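Sorry to interrupt, but I need a hand with the structure work. It will help me judge whether the discrete encoding reads sensibly. Write everything out right here, beneath this request:
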Amino acid sequence: MTQSMSEMPSANRGDAFQEAVATWLSRRVPERAQNQCFDFPAILSTDIGLQREENQDRVAALRLSARHSSQPIIAVVIADGMGGMRDGAKCATLAVSSFFYALVRHRHQGLEQRAAAATAHANDTVFAFANGRGGATLSALLFDEGAPPVIVNLGDSRIYACGKGIKVERLTIDDSLEEAVGGHGRELLQFVGMGPGMQPHIRTVPSGVTELALTTDGIHYIDADTLAKVLFHAPEPKAASERLSALARWCGGHDNASIALIDLKALRTPAVRNHDAGIQVWDPFGTMAITWLRDPGEAPPLQAAAPSETAPLQANPEQRGSDRRDRKGSRRSAKKARQGQSPPKEDVQLEIKIEKSSDVKDGDDDSR
């Protein structure tokens, strides 16, 4: 069921972009889908599986195109809400939407700095909502021109280096008792939403890697050798995604199964990176395009109401008083920023357009 903005933590209500992404990721969707993203070299796929009543996975991609002095960035994120804890689906939604928001907000920093800031903001946002009683795993790729790609991982979602005819290599270690400290069991020592003490694993992608696969445990619970053989022999990423999703079901479909496959070589082409100023977000079910109607530096910030699929974001009357307070706050924050302190929060006026994926699987249009 789609969340209203009143259900989101109050810390999120001030930012139109984060709200828009969170609402969009929470919409009613079919039980499974695959999106071969238009003009973006990635396959995003998710499947509720055969034994779960709700899909608590979220997989999405973001492309921020350059505007003025902003740095372009491409990010692909996969999050798995933690079963048995509070509101796993909502925690995964907040993890992805707040991660994307922080990447946009810190767009003038380097990739590793943005990865750390985005993971910290996601952790804080989910913790503010669930108070440590809920959370999500998170794995992400960050890509920018002129710098080695960066990956970040927290929990037991995974990232693999792969490709047709290429030996598969896992690039991440699970934050589980078994893998992190050599104990027994799959209990997680770290996750998004755990609160203070979180230490994400951030590293650059090894040179020579041409493709990456981001997976939740509904995919990689498959026998490791079998998973590697599928990735090794698949003729192209779409086939690999389809085969792994089907295999997860054939093996019982005990959990939500999500995968993102990214062609790093294609990401480096100008045709993929160079687009008009704005933001695009993909998930397995469709695409959302967000256009800057006003750059944050051109006027005082506005707070915006929730988006619909047919209308751009608009400021509502109840927010006018808070807008005036925000303008005063932004002037004070600007003064602090000039003194070397944190930059002010940047809310912008946005226009949103939504397209549906053409590769949604047939089935009941149930909520996740």
Summary: The domain at 32-289 is CATH 3.60.40.10 (Phosphatase 2c; domain 1). The first strand starts at residue 32 and ends at 36. Confidence is low (pLDDT under 50) at residues 1-14, 295-348.
